[in-house]
Design brief:
Layout: E1 30-42, E2 46-50, E3 69-70, E4 75-80, E5 86-92, E6 95-101, E7 104-107, H1 146-153, H2 160-173, E8 175-176, H3 187-193, E9 195-196, H4 198-211, E10 216-222, E11 238-245, E12 248-252, E13 264-269, E14 278-280, E15 284-297
Parallel strand pairs: 8-9
Antiparallel strand pairs: 1-6, 1-7, 1-15, 2-5, 2-14, 3-6, 4-5, 10-11, 10-13, 11-12
Length: 307
């Protein structure tokens, strides 16, 4: 019996005027083949909510449509949740349910943006929509980790240096271990056990940042072995986190702790409890799970059918 794995997700940047479609004439510098093939066994007729599309902020970068393929359904609908995530609600009969997709997306090929001078913003001047990312949440007990946070980082210059120090500390004190994957593990558990998977690194870093009065949110999506040596792990969706400094959200990654190329955001949230890649309202078994994130072009290209 297997509960479908959690990948938490919340997206905040809505697209003004609605969600744009793929742009078949835009020229990019890198093509990335995305995709997944997930098969569940449902014990009975039930509703399944999937969060498997790219984030609305990346839709204009799609070269081919990002269309969730569902093997069988009685009824389905797409919607944006309270965080701006694109979700699909599926009413499916019992038995096998396959969810698959293989979109192609263009990317700048640039690593994550950095600004070592980005300041922390006083709480009374933060945009109101960022305030919820200062509070404790299901997997991020920032209140219970506050004393530790201020003990470790209270003397670090506020802003970017603080977040970078948090990432460095988490990476050096937590060991990555697939065998320690546990959907119930919280940041406090990670601190005590000192082992975890990518989402656990991010939960601990998020908790420490929030305790230091820096808005931090969980992010998930695709991150392939692009620009780095191949890694000895099966491809999976990835987790990282974002913090609000200066006047925008910035990407940080407490597991890898270095700017990476080719991140494709799917969703963001307070932590992994907000949105799972699939949420099944009934007993399910995970039968198959595979993810693809491969660079297929590294130079400027003309999209198929463009002049």
């Amino acid at each position: 019996m297997s509960r479908v794995r959690f990948l938490a997700i919340e997206l905040q940047h809505h697209c003004p005027g609605g969600v744009p479609g793929p742009n078949p004439h835009k020229i990019g510098t890198m093509l990335i083949q995305l995709g997944y093939d997930i098969e569940l066994e449902l014990s009975q007729q039930m509703t399944v909510v999937a969060v498997l599309n790219v984030h609305p902020s990346r839709i204009a970068d799609l070269v081919e449509p990002d269309e969730l393929q569902v093997s069988q359904w009685i009824r389905k609908e797409e919607y944006l949740d309270a965080f701006g995530n694109k979700c699909t609600r599926i009413l499916a009969s019992g038995g096998p349910l396959r969810l698959s997709n293989s979109p192609l997306i263009q990317d700048s090929g640039e690593p994550d943006a950095i600004d070592p001078d980005a300041p922390r913003i006083a709480i009374d001047k933060l945009p109101p929509e960022t305030l919820r990312f200062l509070l404790p949440s299901r997997y991020c007990e920032s209140d219970r980790l506050a004393d530790l946070a201020w003990q470790l980082f209270g003397n670090v210059p506020p802003g970017w240096p603080t977040v970078q120090a948090v990432c460095g500390w988490v990476q050096s004190h937590i060991t990555f271990d697939y065998n320690c994957a546990n959907p119930w593990k919280s940041a406090l558990d990670v601190y005590a056990e000192r082992r975890g998977v990518c989402r656990d690194f991010q939960h601990l870093a998020i908790s420490l940042c929030r305790a230091l009065h820096i808005p931090a949110r969980y992010a998930t999506g695709y991150l392939g072995d692009i620009g780095i040596p191949p890694q000895p792990y099966p491809m999976d969706f990835s987790a990282w986190f974002e913090v609000f400094l200066a006047d925008r959200w910035w990407t940080f990654d407490a597991r890898h702790n270095q700017p990476r190329i080719g991140r494709v955001l799917m969703a963001t949230g307070r932590d992994a409890a907000d949105v799972a890649i699939t949420t099944s309202f009934g007993q399910t078994w995970l039968k198959k799970f595979s993810v693809v994130t491969d660079e297929v072009a590294s130079q400027p290209y003309s999209v198929r059918g463009a002049a």
